[in-house]
Amino acid sequence: MRYEVPGVLDLTLPDTDGVPLILDSPHSGRDYPDDFQPLVGRHDLRRVEDAFVDSLFERAPDFGATLLNARFPRTYIDANRAATDLDPAMLLSPWPEPIRPSEKSRLGHGLVWKTYPPDRPLYPGKLAVDAVRRRINEYWLPYHETLETEIRRLHIAHGQVWHLNCHSMPSTSSPYIPGRAGVRADFVLGDRDGTTCGRDFTAFVRDTLEAMGYSVRLNDPYRGAELVRAYAAPSEGRHSLQIEINRALYLDEQAIEPGRGFETLQKTLTELIRAMAAYTRDRTDPVAEAAE
User: pLDDT of 109-134, one tens digit each?
Assistant: First the structure.
């Protein structure tokens, strides 16, 4: 069952009884709004997308999981930042509410990006407060509300819920594996140093990937950002884990098209989804299930 908010998000629910597992891809959006007129060309903008990550995980509903994808690009407004993570210097007038710019805003990549990496200006001037507010209300907020609602729904129905926040990382910035000279990690898992997810689930995902022959790092250099932080409470049965995929595994990074390894990795991730679905099904609270 698929729900769509054109240009904003796609939500796909399983057709059969589901499991307490939700996956989301906040940075694979490639529907560029008409009012987005940056100084940087479209091809360059697409280089910072998590291109085709949504497609890599598209079979999640076949195994009872819920799948949420953003349709808007992260350079327009970043769903993986807090709504308060704004740089006041990029606004034409003061923001009318308290804001808390983070280090990401200082680097130009907060809620609304100010620069294109490493430091190219994204806009010819400052942005109107009303324009930024519209981006929050029409894009950021529906995405967050949908994710939070689905996490709550699954938690109520099953007593626990597991959330996998899906991303990709450029091959040139992917970290090296300790003790394996010249070998970059295939995956990085982030649970904010064990604060957003039970360590057993993090270990399960790591061990599953390593058993399939992939290299995995934990929390270095990617610990997880807002979407992992905001809705997790492991002590209450809400677990959020971020996964970063080395783009060299599946993407032609110059053409921004699926590479030769795309189908192989898609099959790998389909097997990972199957394993995660079984893991969450085995840990469903029978009391909560009966009360549904």
Answer: 999 999 999 899 999 999 999 999 99
